[in-house]
Amino acid sequence: MAVQVKVPSMVCAACVRTITTAIQAQFPTAQVQTELETHLVTVQAEITPEQLQAVIVEAGHEVDA
Q1: What is the mean pLDDT of the chain?
Q2: What's the distance, CA 38 to chain centroid?
Q3: Domain count of the chain?
Q4: How far apart are the first and last CA of the chain?
Q5: DSSP 3-state assignment of 25?
Q6: Which of 5, 36, 47, 62 could form a disulfide with 9 if both were Cys (CB 3.0 to 4.6 A apart)?
Q7: Do the domain assignments include residue 64?
Q8: Per the domain annotation, does 6 fall within a domain?
Q9: Which residues pair with 33 in a beta bridge?
Q10: Percent of the chain predicted with pLDDT > 90
Q11: Confidence of residue 28 (pLDDT cuts 50, 70, 90)
């Protein structure tokens, strides 16, 4: 299942690494795609939108609802 969220605070490569690492730490088989220009994070995994948002917020980033 693919889940997508907008992360306005994701503005650089370090942000991408932080978010990707946080997601894969909790969901090791997740495939994470990021788009800096649009601030979108797409995750292929058994994860709910709420779980994805929680992981990203825990990593110190904002998520648009």
Answers
A1: 97
A2: 13
A3: 1
A4: 19
A5: helix
A6: 62
A7: no
A8: yes
A9: 42
A10: 97
A11: very high
Strand partners, 44: 2, 31
Helices (H), the chain: 13-26, 49-58
The CATH code of the domain that includes 20 is 3.30.70.100
Cβ pair 2, 49 in contact under 8 A: no
In a domain, residue 63? The reply is no
Residue 49 CB coordination number (10 Å): 13
How far is it, in rounded angstroms, from Cα 3 to Cα 47?
7
In angstroms, the CA 36 to CA 8 distance is 9
H or E stretch covering 32: strand 31-35
Query: Which structural domain range is residue 42 located in?
Result: 2-58
Residue type at position 64: D
Q: Are 4 and 52 in contact (CB under 8 A)?
A: no
> Has residue 21 been placed in a domain?
yes
